[in-house]
Structures are given as C-alpha cells and as structure tokens.
Amino acid sequence: MKLKIILYLSLFLLCGFGYFLFAQDVKTLIDQATEKYDIGLFDESIELLNNAEKIDPTQAVIFFKRGNSYLKKAEFDSALKDYSSALLINPCYADVYNNRGTIYYFIKQYDLALREFSRAIECDTTYHRSYNNIGLIYFEQGKYSDAINMFNSSLKYNTADFKTYVKRGNTYFVLTNYKMAIEDYTKVLDYFPESVEALLSRGFAYKLTGNINKAIEDFTKITIIEKDNFDAHFNRALCFIDINQMKKAFDDLVIADKIIPNNKIVKIKMGIALSAIGEFEEAISEFNYVLKLDSNNTEAYVNRGMAYKSIFKLDLALKDFAKAISIDSNFADAYFNRGMLYQNSKYERQAIDDFTKVIQLKPNDYEAYLNRGKSYMRLKLYDSADSDMNKSLEIKPDFVEAIFNKAYLKYIIGDNDSAITLSQQALNMDNSLPEPLYIIGLAYHNKKDFENALKYYEKFIEKAEGIARVAEFVQIAKNLIKKLTKN
What we know:
Helix content: over 70%
Structural class: mainly alpha
Mean pLDDT: 92
Number of helices: 27
Radius of gyration: 36 Å
Distance between the termini: 147 Å
Largest sheet: none
C-alpha cells in the first residue's frame, strides 16, 4: 500500500513538473516572439507563436500577438482569423476588439470598426485607445463635435497621450476654433518642444488668427529641427508675404523650390514676391515657367498680366487677363485686374463692366464696389458712385480707401463739410495717408477758407512727396499754393 502511494505521489510530482516546464516553454516563446515583433521581425515572431500554439492552443494571447504581426504585414484576413480565435478563448479581450476595429478602419468599413471599438469599451470602460479611434472615424465622417467628445474621453483615461491632443487640436482647427486648437498644440509642445506636427499645426492656427509673428516663430523652429522641411519654408514664406516682407518670402520660396522642384504654387508665389520687390522681368520668367508646366494655369496668367502692367506692356497684360477669362469665365481676379487696368487707362465703361462681373461672382467684394464707384464718379454718375461707395463701406466699415474716396465725391458735388468730416475720419484711422489732407485742402478752398486750404495743401505735399500714386496731385497742390499766395 505504501509503495502504491509513493508511486502515485511520484507520478503527480513528475506531471506537475512537466506542466511547469511546459508553461515555461510557452511563456519563453511568447516573450521571444514579442521581442522579434518589437524590432520589426514579424515573420520570425509568427513562427515562434506557431510553436507556442502547438504546445498550448488555449492561450488567447498567442492568437492576439500573432494577429498583431499579421496586421503589421497588412495580411488582414490572417489577422482577423487569429483575433477571432483569441475571442473564442477570451470573449472580453479589449485589445483584440480594438485591433480588429483598426483593420476595419484601414479598409474603410467604418460601421464594423465602430462596432469593434465599442465592444472594446464595453469590456473596459477605461480603454482610451478605442475612444481615440472612434474619434478618428467621427472626424473623417465630419462629426466634429462627436469626435471631440471621444478625444475628451480618451484623454480622461490617459492624460499623457499627446497624439490625441494633436488630433483634438486638428478637430478644433477644422471647426475654426483656433484658440482651442492652439491650446492643444501647446500642451504637446510643452512636453515635446520638437514635435514638428504640433509646431506646423500651431503655426497654421496662428497664421489664420492673424498672429503672423507667432506663426513665423513656429515655422522657424521647424526649419531648425528639419532644415529641409518643405511645409515650414513654404508656409513661412506665405507669412512673410502677409506682412509684406517679400525678400524674406522669396528666400524661403527658393529653398522650398529646391526641396520639391517644379511645384507650380511655389513658382507662382516666387513670381508674386519678385513682382512686389520690383523684379518684374524675373517674375514674368517664373510665370512663364509655370505656363510651360500648365498652359491653362489662370493664376499664372493673371499674375503675369499684373507684371506686364507694371512695366507698361498693357497689350500683353490685357491679353493675359483675357486668356485667364477664356479658360475660366468665373475667375473673379482676372476681371478685377483687367478692370483696374481699364480704369488706370481711363476706359471707365469697360472697367465698370469688369467690376460688375466681379460683384456678380463675389457679392461681398468691397474693393470691386469701391473701384466701380470711382469709375462712376469719373463719368459724373454721382448717384451710382455714392451708392457703390456706401455698399463698399457697408461690407467693410473700416475700409479707409472707401472713406476718403467718398470724401472726394462729397467735395465734387459741393458738400464740403461732409468732405472734411469724412477725410478727418480717414486720417483718424490711418494718419499715414496723404490723400485725405489733399481733399480737406480742396474742400476749404471751395469754402473760400484759403488759410486752411493752404495749410492742408502744404501738409499734403510734405506727406506725399515721393509717393508715386499721388504724384499728379502733388503737382496740382503746388500750383494751387502758387495761385493762392499770389493773391
């Protein structure tokens, strides 16, 4: 009897020890497979997990990890098969549901993906990855408020997931809530100051809120981290264009052009920058290059036309504007610039037709209303001119140019007091402008208040000297002063 007990006990100990070795073998294989997975050796990881499955096919983690390797290899059918096997063993395996949802997300079967991510959350209400993934789907579906709610839930359970801050920031960005977007990007940058994604996104947001200098700072930081970052150089160039630092803009565009050669948008912006610094022939050369790449590029035609206009090749300018219109009959910029050329050449009727077309295409274009009003004024159609200038100011009440042009109209029709009041209003808004001083002088002259007329003519000349757009009026003011001082 004692012998029998000893034999049974020995057998039990041997089996127990065998099970221990057996379990150790499986764990070792899983650990080795994980190490291979972490360094990107997915086939080797799969082979190790195949061996583990042969030893113990009852462990869900084997199928989960092998499914992950198939997922990395984009072998989705094999991955889904393994994930399903894992769920047969463990029906509430949140990681499996999340990764199965990820596959459906990749193949754009969003309803199935949402189902899987929701199941992961049912298994574990703190499972932040699935909240985050549902947020991504809602973002792609345009359900931005729902996306933000999901990102909020994700961050509630994992406050250190800074990629989610970027995603939430991007959602706020799309909703044009730039303040909140900037706050999210800043949270990321407080911890990861060299996050190019966050810097780029915050730079965009700063630019759109008019904080151009802050945007330039962010884009500059990127150029230090990644000197060949196209987006940083290109967008910094756009910022420099916004603040009229055209030489700096051009320098950035040259770098952007080296990083991604023959980009039509870059070439057009280079031409615009060159035009702004007076290098019109070089600008035309850039626009020519664009038109070799794309003979129907309306923006290149319009900008080349403006460059031709600046060097007084008016026939070529008109031809370019007409070409842009023939390609796109709804291209408002082409009509506007042709209208300006007609107006400068004193073809007021043609200018009015073009500005009218702009207004039809862009009913809130306050500059088109003003310039049509100026042409009406030159044709002595004063009621129409007044109506257009009023409309321009209705759309943009702080449009200084419309205010002093309306002041000039009031002077022409003999309403000198209104002319003076409006001109003073324009000066209060922008004291650097010479035109309102000239109009005040004319109005006082009309009122036969020659002392004030002389005073304002002199102020006008002092401020206007060297400004090309008012050179003609400077000479007129000087002649008026001579007449007044003779008397």
